Amino acid sequence: MRRLLCILLLSAWALPASAAFKCDEGGVTVYSDTPCPGAAPLRLEKGKAPPADADKRLEQDKKAVREMQRNRRRHEARLDKEQQRAARAAAVRERRCVRLARELRWAEQDAAAAAGKRAPRARQKAQRAAETYQETCRHREGLQIGTGT
């Protein structure tokens, strides 16, 4: 008997929670689980069942998502390789420019120290080193070394 009374009390307590009311309060529509003056309970209908082919469509969508993710990973890997290749090329260019700058500096020092018949040849060598540096290392505008002749 006690058990039956408990079940009835619990079911009576759960009944109002399943009711819904549509109220108009100051021009604003409000939905509530407690009745308001002049409100009638709303009849809530169950949602529609998913279409028969929903599982099939879900699997197709999952497959499409996996394919897009695979393509994205391939694309990102390709971009990473291109960036690495560009970084290596930039490092090679930078090392070459450092070497050319050093050779230019040495040629300018040799031209400044040269005397007699060796002076014109040393100045010409320094000028050519400067031209080679300027042509090859334009990206290092702030670091250009001018000839001292």
Automatic annotation (TrEMBL):
Signal among keywords: yes
Its domain of life reads Bacteria
Keywords, comma-separated and alphabetical: Signal
Outline the segment boundaries, as ranges, of region: Disordered: 42-85, 112-149
Quote the biased-composition stretches of kind Basic and acidic residues, using this chain's numbering: 43-70
Q: Where is the signal peptide?
A: 1-19
Protein name per the record: DUF4124 domain-containing protein
Q: Which organism is it from?
A: Noviherbaspirillum aridicola
User: Could you read off the lineage of the organism from its UniProt record?
Assistant: Bacteria, Pseudomonadati, Pseudomonadota, Betaproteobacteria, Burkholderiales
